[in-house]
Amino acid sequence: MVKKIIAAGVGLLLVGFIAIQLIPVARTNPPVVAEPAWDSPTTRAYAERACFDCHSNETKWPWYAYVAPISWQVADHVHEGREKFNISEWPSGEGDEAAEEVQEGAMPMGQYLFMHPEASLTEAEKQEFIAGLQATFGGEGGGEGEHEAGREIESHEDND
Question: Which of 26, 35, 134, 140 pairs with 64 at a CA distance of 20 to 30 A?
Answer without folding.
Answer: 35
